[in-house]
Write a structure and sequence with these properties.
This protein is an alpha+beta fold and about 240 residues long. The protein has helices at about 10-15, 20-30, 40-50, 95, 120-130, 145-155, 200-210, and strands spanning about 5-10, 55-60, 70-75, 105-110, 135-140, 160-165, 170-180, 195, 225, 230-235. About 25% of the residues lie in helices and about 25% in strands. The strands form 2 sheets. Strands 1, 2, 3, 4, 5, 6, 7 and 8 form an 8-stranded mixed β-sheet that branches. The longest helix has 12 residues, at about 20-30. About 40% of the residues are buried.
Length: about 240
């Protein structure tokens, strides 16, 4: 694996053509994990929901042999979103207000086992968010997977609350970060410490070191390892709650 995967951007139409391939990689990553959406028939409706979302965006990484190495996708939160509903503690009305152009929701970020620890997850994340018009980004992480939470904190995210994202799901933390270029203080996440997703500063350098196993994080690269070495959590599993 001397050659890094090539990353490309995809619209909903292009990603829909890749639907079975996206599901195949999800199956491989979550096999035996115990995740409530590990099964193909459980995850597929969430994927289809996001593929139908207005202004859906996707980045996908392909290995030199053409196989799918990883992907990330999401869409802006609409004015009728339920993303912030049920959050503990609740956001005030001004912070939770959405208009379709304020917040980008990162729903999925996953990388195949053989490409973990190579920086691929961070490259997918940054490519997806680069140049976006929204002023902030949000994602979801399991509350009991500290390595994933720590990784996202090193990428500029701050936890804004806890929720149960869908029926049968374990408690999860919602996180937000200010996107580079936002000048409106109202778009900064609660308890933010001034870092922004995509900043090319020490924050970014720390994230790269974290993916390489430095700073005590190990080989997370968007996931943590669960029983049997299977990934027990993925980054940004918003999964249709818009």
């Amino acid at each position: 694996m001397n050659t890094a995967p090539a990353i490309r951007h995809y619209t909903a139409d292009h990603a829909a053509v890749m639907r079975e391939e996206l599901l195949d990689l999800h199956d491989a990553v979550y096999e035996g994990s115990g995740d409530p959406l590990a099964a193909r028939d459980a995850f597929a409706p969430f994927l289809d929901h996001w593929l139908a979302a207005e202004n859906f965006a996707c980045t996908a990484a392909r290995a030199p042999n053409g196989t799918l190495a990883g992907y990330a996708y999401g869409a802006p939160l609409t004015s009728h979103t339920s993303w912030w509903d049920g959050l503990i503690p609740p956001l005030d009305a001004a912070a939770a207000a959405e208009n379709g152009t304020r917040t980008f929701a990162l729903s999925e970020l996953l990388v195949g086992r053989e490409w973990r620890g190579t920086g691929t997850a961070r490259r997918l994340h940054d490519a997806l968010l680069h140049g976006r018009p929204e002023s902030r980004v949000t994602l979801l992480t399991p509350v009991d997977h500290s390595k994933v939470v720590q990784m996202y904190r090193s990428w500029g995210y701050e936890r804004v609350g806890e929720c149960v994202p869908f029926a049968g799901a374990p408690p999860a933390g919602r996180h937000a970060a200010e996107l580079v270029g936002s000048a409106d203080p109202r778009d900064r996440p609660a308890r933010a410490r001034g870092r922004r997703a995509g900043d090319a500063d020490e924050c970014g350098a720390r994230a790269v070191r974290a993916e390489r196993g430095e700073e005590g994080l190990g080989d997370v690269d968007g996931h943590v390892e669960g029983p049997g070495g299977c990934p027990a959590a993925e980054a940004g599993a918003g999964r249709g709650l818009r």
